[in-house]
Amino acid sequence: DEYKPEKALSEDDLKNAISVHHALAIKAMDYEKKPNVLKLKTADWRVFLFQA
Q1: In the structure, how many helices (H) and strands (E) does the chain have?
Q2: What angle is formed at CA 5 by the lines to CA 26 and CA 11, rounded to 5 degrees?
Q3: How far apart are CA 3 and CA 40, in angstroms?
Q4: 47 FRET partner, CA 20 to 30 A, in 9, 23, 26, 40?
Q5: Are residues 12 and 36 in contact, defined by beta-carbon separation less than 8 angstroms?
Q6: Is 47 helix (H, G, I), strand (E, B) or coil?
Q7: From residue 41, how far is each of 14, 20, 25, 38 by CA, in Å?
Q8: How confident is the model at residue 10, as a pLDDT?
Q9: What are the phi and psi torsion angles at 49 (to 5°)?
Q10: pTM exceeding 0.85
Q11: pLDDT tens digit at each of 52 positions of the chain
Protein backbone atom coordinates (compact mmCIF):
# COMPACT_ATOMS: atom_id res chain seq x y z
CA ASP A 1 0.00 0.00 0.00
CA GLU A 2 1.02 3.56 -0.61
CA TYR A 3 1.97 5.64 2.45
CA LYS A 4 -0.71 8.11 3.50
CA PRO A 5 0.10 10.64 6.26
CA GLU A 6 -3.39 10.46 7.78
CA LYS A 7 -3.07 6.68 8.22
CA ALA A 8 -1.56 5.54 11.53
CA LEU A 9 1.62 3.47 11.30
CA SER A 10 1.31 -0.17 12.29
CA GLU A 11 3.67 -1.99 14.65
CA ASP A 12 5.20 -3.81 11.65
CA ASP A 13 5.84 -0.48 9.92
CA LEU A 14 7.71 0.79 12.96
CA LYS A 15 9.73 -2.43 13.33
CA ASN A 16 10.94 -2.16 9.74
CA ALA A 17 11.74 1.56 9.86
CA ILE A 18 15.31 2.76 9.33
CA SER A 19 16.33 5.78 11.38
CA VAL A 20 18.21 8.23 9.15
CA HIS A 21 18.87 10.78 11.89
CA HIS A 22 22.67 11.29 11.91
CA ALA A 23 23.03 8.77 9.05
CA LEU A 24 25.55 9.06 6.23
CA ALA A 25 24.69 8.29 2.60
CA ILE A 26 27.49 7.83 0.06
CA LYS A 27 28.02 6.15 -3.30
CA ALA A 28 29.14 2.57 -2.65
CA MET A 29 32.44 2.74 -4.53
CA ASP A 30 33.54 -0.69 -3.24
CA TYR A 31 30.38 -2.47 -4.48
CA GLU A 32 30.73 -3.70 -8.06
CA LYS A 33 27.91 -6.25 -8.52
CA LYS A 34 25.35 -3.65 -9.65
CA PRO A 35 25.57 -0.04 -10.86
CA ASN A 36 24.29 3.02 -9.00
CA VAL A 37 24.44 1.61 -5.48
CA LEU A 38 24.11 3.88 -2.48
CA LYS A 39 25.46 2.94 0.97
CA LEU A 40 23.55 4.21 3.99
CA LYS A 41 25.37 3.97 7.32
CA THR A 42 23.13 4.71 10.30
CA ALA A 43 24.11 6.23 13.64
CA ASP A 44 24.07 2.76 15.22
CA TRP A 45 26.57 1.55 12.53
CA ARG A 46 24.13 -0.56 10.50
CA VAL A 47 24.85 -0.49 6.77
CA PHE A 48 22.21 -0.69 4.04
CA LEU A 49 22.78 -0.83 0.29
CA PHE A 50 20.21 0.65 -2.09
CA GLN A 51 20.24 0.49 -5.87
CA ALA A 52 19.04 3.70 -7.49
Answers
A1: 1, 3
A2: 80
A3: 22
A4: 9
A5: no
A6: strand
A7: 19, 9, 6, 10
A8: 86
A9: -110, 135
A10: no
A11: 676 677 788 888 888 889 999 999 999 999 999 999 999 999 999 999 999 9
